[in-house]
Predict the 3D structure of the following.
Amino acid sequence: MTTIREDDLVQSIADSLQYISYYHPADYLKALGAAFEQEQSPAARDAIAQILTNSRLCAEGRRPICQDTGIVNVFLKVGMDVRFALKGTLEDAINEGVRRAYLDPDNPLRASVLADPAGKRANTRDNTPAVVHVSLVPGDRLDVTVAAKGGGSENKSKFVMLNPSDSIVDWVLKTVPTMGAGWCPPGMLGLGIGGTAEKAMLMAKESLMEPIDMAQLKARGPQNRIEELRIELFDKVNALGIGAQGLGGLSTVLDVKILDYPTHAASLPVAMIPNCAATRHAHFVLDGSGPAALEPPSLSDWPQVTWHASPSARRVNLATVTAADVQTWKPGETLLLSGKLLTGRDAAHKRMADLFARGEGLPAGLDFTNRFIYYVGPVDPVRDEVVGPARPTTATRMDKFTTMMLEKTGLLGMVGKAERGPTAIEAIRKFRSVYLIAVGGAAYLVSKAIRGSRVVAFPELGMEAVYEFDVEDMPVTVAVDSRGESVHETGPAEWRVKIGKIPVKA
């Protein structure tokens, strides 16, 4: 009988969450490095270079790969000859580990978990509770897999009850383009097939914990139907041409993982969950001898890729930029922003909408006239940092506020992540505005361009308050121009034709 002490479990959970906040798995780095070498799309290649450069900076500085440090998922396989020496429940011990990790003063992680999700949505302030799954297995050890799942990718989870005669491949190829780029490709797709609805979703999530091995699988060839399906989906999803950050290119997924389970004769449950460019998971085993020891990777594991701004990038002074200037910017063009940049996410937009609905103005000192807004909720700074990792959040969540902001505030443009929906694009076209994107998965790299930061409004919202950043040469791409042309539509369409493996409908 093995005894797992509470302190060992708590420390192991805390250490693993810190570890995955700043170290990419080696298999992901190798696969992304290969994708960079093969990529032919300049925009996608630039995005991958930013992700790889950001990854190495995070490993060196031990700071989060992404400012969305995720909701914690823990998978426990408990040996039947294991006993726990705990003061409370197993979940209590795990949550204490989460709490320690996210409140670590040397590398604080952003608390994103909200209690009362259908009501007040109050931040728990320490990212607890975790989502815990437990299974009993033979043996005398505790097998633990810890993951931190970002909201951008989790929000793109899909589930369907197909008819037994329906094609899984057809459903995946129809569904992936609807997910947009908010899940920050290139990443992984996890599929759960069979069982029941909840079983399929759990299998999809668990499959993402497996190592990336598509190159090895292709080299040796498939040995069963699931492996055949993995390869078929990998090739056909990449042939969609979505590419890194949805900009169009050769690599949309680095691997496709599948777990299956017997199901009812009348059913074919299929779940699909993507993993983003901030792939974060770790595995360890406790045997009663002490806490887990996770070995730091070698910096030689990182591909020798360093991002540099293109010589053709246009420098933009945010203090002097005009509406006329904005209308000269072209889709896909790289800009380097310098000057004062305001921020705001969901909660701040809701506050402003409520003020306008009551006939009130914005708080004193908050003026968006001829300014840009950056959709971001940064990590708290440490040591000499001005701000912690600060990449953008998914912009489509702000689509319903876009007309209001452009009509009522004098806003010139927006900076976010991924595509905009039809409502936002129409507002951008109507008001001759612009939408820019920064690379998801490059949060620490982006933060290096931020030279100053102060809270301007709604300080009680914490990371969702409105800040004013002072930025210098912050890299962005024109995603939707003032005429409403979107690179997230034109880029994938262009590269799908180039790849030519899937017929393009007229």
Observations:
- The chain is about 30% helix and 25% strand.
